[in-house]
């Protein structure tokens, strides 16, 4: 079967950074589904795994952690899906990725594709939706059953125009929160407003001063999806006493946790691959999250964050998509569809 992979970890402008290959088609066993891939999307994790390093693979490394497709085979222990089901999901860092015509994935991290979206539109959603859902409702502990109470609370989403920010804004509004999102360019400001943000501020300016100008003294929650190091002190300034901060972005330098001590602030990480990597007892929660997201999309409460589609799925287009991501200027999600 066709696939795109790598043997060497190279800069994306190198023609061997991602190459077209042919590999053996796998078979489903246990709780695995074999999915015929219809569309994939790219995420920052793709570029981080592919980034230059002094390692050479003997077998091709297949990247990709977002996909939509059709189940063609199920393992003997599967109970959630059957052949013919249309699905969407983000896989596991421990296993070969979705840059391939057919892909094996544990059914416990798979959801039913939204009926109102095509494969490309749906492929934009899994990784970012799981990340945003876990960050908001598990890590930050926002209660979706008390939407009236949530209307008196404010969340600041740093990096609102990115993949996670785009869906986090929508989910936060669905939960009843007042949303302040950051964006720095005219087109990204328009995008986050379209996603539902109540207010937009610039993450290159003083967050505190801009919030004060909006008559917002401090915020109950912060979701950081852009440069934890850059925004650390500012987040400490604007978070409410006993508030909560969640980040999805690695820090490069030591974080001074004492910044949060006087306010008794909670800080927590969100990494959506944790459950699949460690096969946690609640791993199946990602199946339920994706089904909830799918239902909300079909009910018109959420919309796809797809911004650009490339066809077909091959190395040249994937190199292009990686370059776009590495520019740091992408809005929403980039999707590739069809191996044909």
Automatic annotation (TrEMBL):
PROSITE patterns: QOR_ZETA_CRYSTAL (PS01162). Residues 17-336 form the Enoyl reductase (ER) domain. Coiled coil: none annotated. Keywords: Cytoplasm, Metal-binding, NADP, Oxidoreductase, RNA-binding, Zinc. Belongs to the zinc-containing alcohol dehydrogenase family. Quinone oxidoreductase subfamily. It is found in: Cytoplasm. This is Zinc-type alcohol dehydrogenase-like protein. Homotetramer.
């Amino acid at each position: 079967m066709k696939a795109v992979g790598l043997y060497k970890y190279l800069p994306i402008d190198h023609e061997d950074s991602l190459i077209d290959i042919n590999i053996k088609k796998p078979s489903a066993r246990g709780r695995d589904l074999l999915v015929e891939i219809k569309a994939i999307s790219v995420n920052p994790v793709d570029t981080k795994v592919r980034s230059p390093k002094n390692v050479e693979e003997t077998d091709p490394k297949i990247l990709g952690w977002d996909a939509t497709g059709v189940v063609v085979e199920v393992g003997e222990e599967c109970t959630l899906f059957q052949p013919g089901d249309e699905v969407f999901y983000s896989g596991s860092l421990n296993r070969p990725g979705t840059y391939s015509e057919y892909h094996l994935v544990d059914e416990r991290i798979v959801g039913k594709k939204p009926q109102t979206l095509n494969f490309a539109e749906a492929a934009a959603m899994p990784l970012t939706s799981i990340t945003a859902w876990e960050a908001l409702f598990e890590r930050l502990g926002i209660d979706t059953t008390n939407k009236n109470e949530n209307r008196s609370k404010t969340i600041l989403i740093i990096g609102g125009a990115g993949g996670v920010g785009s869906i986090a804004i929508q989910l936060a509004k669905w939960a009843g929160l007042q949303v302040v999102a950051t964006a720095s360019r005219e087109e990204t400001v328009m995008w986050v407003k379209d996603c539902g943000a109540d207010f937009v501020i610039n993450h290159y300016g003083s967050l505190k001063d801009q919030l004060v100008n909006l008559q917002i003294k401090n915020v109950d929650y912060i979701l950081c999806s852009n440069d934890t190091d850059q925004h650390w002190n500012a987040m400490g300034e604007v978070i409410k006493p006993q508030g909560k901060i969640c980040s999805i972005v690695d820090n490069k330098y030591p974080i001074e946790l004492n910044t949060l001590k006087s306010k008794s602030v909670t800080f927590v990480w969100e990494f959506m691959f944790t459950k699949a990597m460690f096969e946690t007892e609640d791993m199946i929660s990602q199946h339920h999250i994706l089904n909830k997201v799918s239902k909300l999309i079909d009910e018109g409460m959420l919309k796809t964050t797809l911004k650009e589609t490339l066809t077909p799925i091959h190395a040249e287009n994937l190199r292009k998509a990686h370059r776009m991501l590495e520019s740091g200027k992408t809005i929403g999600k980039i999707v590739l569809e069809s191996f044909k």
